[in-house]
Request: fold
Amino acid sequence: MSSPLAGEAVAKPARGGRGTSNRPRTYAQHVSEAKPLQIPADMNAFNQQVIADFRATGGQMTGQMAGRGILLLTTKGARSGQPRTAVLGYGRHGKRYVVIASNNGAPKAPAWYHNLLRQPKATVEVGPDRFEVRATTAKPEERDELAKSVPYLEGQQKLTSRELPLVVLEPV
Reply:
């Protein structure tokens, strides 16, 4: 099992055609197809636009975000108590979603992670689906197995000396 927490992500549904499903594909399934993302100067404004586009299209991302499996994680602010939405890449491990608290390699974990430590219940949006989750931080004995579902973990880990938390989001 895992210790309490909560965390990230969203996916793009597979394209129609023979042998494809309407289920969202994960970031791992898109990573080889997607073009490198240009990091914007104003990341907050960029994220707000991604959130608006995601919700307007039911997760069918276009433009620079086309082909990227992302999810929206809405937590309750640890200090403010206000809803806070983060755009996250993710992996799947069975029915659970796995995200990393990277903060792009910053010395401190992202605010959403601290929010989840305070209140592990959150809301996730994947494609057109929206559901409640309970977040936990992976225990050391779970890391190797869960890390397999998040292929970009190694690259993100190289950006910082702190161990990046793996966050498991389990639908409730």
About this structure: The mean pLDDT is 82. The longest helix spans residues 43-57. The domain at 3-171 is CATH 2.30.110.10 (Pnp Oxidase; Chain A). The beta strands are 3-4, 12-13, 24-25, 70-76, 83-89, 91-93, 96-100, 121-126, 129-137, 166-171.
